[in-house]
């Protein structure tokens, strides 16, 4: 890896937690220079502007989540087990290498909804990728006879994601992790009901 690539990666890895905790609007250039120890010129010598850093930071944070979830899913042999593995990751954020600040998809989607079209598109693409992944798992379960043939894979994926993200939002909003536990139990029941 060339020095410029290493510097760029360092900036992304160092600022990604800040963007995930403070959001795009709340993260300042001073935050970025303080965290990295680099000058404004060094940061903007590697990125065109704050937008480019934020987009790369989101991609970095989301990739961490995807890798973590995929690793847990790959430990399971059944479609049901793979879906339950997703629940396990989101239920136990502290015991996994989850990005500081919580789910980057939730955080970015809420903030970028009307204020940052490029960041919103990145979050939308991440959501669609996650949904496609769950649809594939559910369809595989239907084909294998593990889930009922009448299960709507797309509706199931949307429901599971909405429940998971809603659980995280409610627990963050209230500061009460038991809310996440309660909703995740409902997610597990939804998965068990697919059989």
Structural features, described:
With 195 residues, the protein is mainly alpha-helical. The protein has helices spanning 3-26, 29-36, 40-46, 50-73, 79-91, 104-112, 117-143, 153-174, 177-192. The protein is elongated and about 60 Å long. 30% of the residues are buried.
Distance between the termini: 48 Å
Helix fraction, binned, reads: over 70%
CATH top level label: Mainly Alpha
Number of strands: 0
Order of helices and strands: HHHHHHHHH
Q: Could you say what the CATH topology is called?
A: Tetracycline Repressor, domain 2
Number of helices: 9
Q: What is the correct CATH architecture?
A: Orthogonal Bundle
| SS strand fraction | under 5%
Our Rg estimate from Cα atoms comes to 18 Å
GO molecular function: DNA binding
InterPro entries: Homeodomain-like_sf (IPR009057), HTH_TetR (IPR001647), Tet_transcr_reg_TetR-rel_C_sf (IPR036271), TetR_C (IPR011075)
Protein name: Transcriptional regulator
Keywords: DNA-binding, Transcription, Transcription regulation
How would you summarize the topology of this molecule?
Elements: H1 3-26, H2 29-36, H3 40-46, H4 50-73, H5 79-91, H6 104-112, H7 117-143, H8 153-174, H9 177-192
């Amino acid at each position: 890896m060339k020095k410029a690539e290493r510097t760029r990666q360092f900036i992304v890895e160092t600022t990604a937690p800040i963007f995930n905790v403070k959001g795009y609007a709340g993260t300042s250039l001073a935050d970025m220079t303080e965290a990295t120890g680099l000058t404004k010129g060094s940061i903007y010598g590697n990125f065109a502007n704050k937008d480019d850093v934020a987009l790369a930071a989101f991609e970095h944070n989301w990739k961490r989540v995807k890798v973590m979830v995929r690793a847990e899913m790959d430990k399971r042999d059944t479609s049901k087990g793979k879906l339950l593995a997703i629940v396990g990751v989101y239920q136990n954020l502290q015991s996994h290498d989850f990005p500081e600040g919580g789910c980057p998809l939730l955080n970015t989607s809420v903030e970028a909804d009307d204020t940052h079209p490029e960041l919103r598109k990145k979050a939308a693409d991440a959501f669609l990728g996650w949904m496609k992944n769950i649809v594939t798992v559910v369809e595989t379960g239907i084909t294998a006879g593990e889930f009922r043939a009448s299960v709507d894979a797309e509706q199931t994926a949307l429901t599971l994601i909405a429940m998971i993200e809603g659980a995280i939002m409610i627990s963050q909003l209230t500061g009460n992790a038991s809310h996440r536990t309660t909703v995740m139990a409902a997610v597990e029941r939804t998965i068990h009901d697919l059989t």
